From TrEMBL:
Organism from which the protein derives: Mucilaginibacter pineti
Domain Cyclic nucleotide-binding: 29-112
Keywords assigned by UniProt, alphabetized: Kinase, Transferase
Keyword Ligase: no
Record-linked Gene3D superfamilies: Jelly Rolls
Listed name of the protein: cAMP-binding domain of CRP or a regulatory subunit of cAMP-dependent protein kinases
Domain of life assignment: Bacteria
GO molecular function, one term: kinase activity
Amino acid sequence: MNLLIENIRTYVPLSAADEKAIRELFHRKEFQKEEHLLKAGQVCRRLIFLEQGLVRYYLSDNGDEQTNYFNKEKEWVCDYPSFLPKVSSTVNIQALEPVIAWTISYDDLQIFYREVQYGERFGRVGIEQVFVNIIKQVTSLYTDKPEVRYEKFLRSYFDIAQRIPQYYIASYVGVKPQSLSRIRKRIAGLRY
């Protein structure tokens, strides 16, 4: 839980009373590798902080999967378009490794906003970051070639790229695994 508290403290100052409220409102949960934190069709009912592990967000259409995001340790996991209005999700969130997480329900998050002195500021700053990341990702999908998307992936996820199976990286970039291999060879050739 200390990692969670330190992460919140990077956004807002916390008093001893704030820390006590956080310890009461968040709950520890573990997920096994390949277990879903959320499946399409379910309502996202928790905001999740990753203490350990790695997850991917993906869409599924007739058996085809499109990976569109990854989260790692010290990051927040949520399908906000489902969580905030309490509607069915269109996205799946799956553990790529065993996960240790701290979760808070929507109702408890409202208590957090009221009881933690700068709780609402924390929520605003967090959602602003999510919004900016989503806009960047959507823009990249429509304007960048796969090679550029792969280079952006390497910059954004340099610390976890080795932990993600190549077929998920290919899906994220928007190419088949064979095409990703060719892109990787071209990029490696340019570096030497």
